[in-house]
Amino acid sequence: xxxxxxxxxxxxxxxxxxxxxxxxxxxxxxxxxxxxxxxxxxxxxxxxxxxxxxxxxxxxxxxxxxxxxxxxxxxxxxxxxxxxxxxxxxxxxxxxxxxxxxxxxxxxxxxxxxxxxxxxxxxxxxxxxxxxxxxxxxxxxxxxxxxxxxxxxxxxxxxxxxxxxxxxxxxxxxxxxxxxxxxxxxxxxxxxxxxxxxxxxxxxxxxxxxxxxxxxxxxxxxxxxxxxxxxxxxxxxxxxxxxxxxxxxxxxxxxxxxxxxxxxxxxxxxxxxxxxxxxxxxxxxxxxxxxxxxxxxxxxxxxxxxxxxxxxxxxxxxxxxxxxxxxxxxxxxxxxxxxxxxxxxxxxxxxxxxxxxxxxxxxxxxxxxxxxxxxxxxxxxxxxxxxxxxxxxxxxxxxxxxxxxxxxxxxxxxxxxxxxxxxxxx
Length: 426
Known about the structure:
By secondary structure, the protein is mainly beta. It has six helices and 18 strands.
């Protein structure tokens, strides 16, 4: 009996041993292998997440591949505008309702972060108006920069000429519905050529920056010229108390809320040799194939501190012979202008701004402009929802003229202008 019990027990133990032998063994190597598999999956997942498009309002959609050989940031923005003009008796004289700006922008680098590109396209009539020579005007920026260090860079292509502060600022970063009448008359806009920039030291409290360009002189998308002239521009910027926070030198208003006083003092000069357009890089073609040597000068001052911002721009244009004969009504607008504006930002939501702008044409062209001086005073209110990327703006302006006899046509009249604008950008 005991022998049978003993044999039965041996049989059960043998069966258990055989079953155990058939199960896969949990060896340390197998545990390590499973851990590596799980780790690889996690790393791959993280890598995929890192290389997925990054979307942020105001900073666009950014794509970065695994090999880090290029980066692309895509942005768009639009400005929807309603403008009403009234004469001095408050009679409505003009209504303007349209998409003023609709733009698509691409920025990034190719091959190396030192090889940077910037492309911007404009699609509204305001942006893409056909040029006097018949060329299309959709391309606003198309430039490649070599940036070996934060101190200096050089670029080749088409972009803004770094001359006056108001024009360097993006139209998406304004505290009024649009730039001043002084900037509208004297700015150089864009051109094609070589561009360079050098900073003494951006990391210290004091900095001195120089920006220069050598360009075709006929403005954006012009293509070619046979007059043998070029445009030369240089700008010097002084930051005596250090740089502004969050690019505050190119963004209007003190949205960053500077905790210390920040100041920019800058001057620029541009010489357009044998310009063939009335405004140098802008305007109609001069009559009868004429050319003129045009000089433009700019002085800017910015001060920001704890929500308060102050700007002043003084600029002008010189030309030895701004007219084209007594019977011709075309002219180069030679003269000068002064713009002063100030603002205060409440809790980064509401901003109130005041601006006064005055134009002083030279005496020789006053009979053609119809005025000795033109002044525009503007009160602006902005409600920031997501910074400058989503905002609602309204401003009210009063225009006055000191008239002279104007044989060229109807005299411009005093009057009011109300503008309302919605800005949306990604």
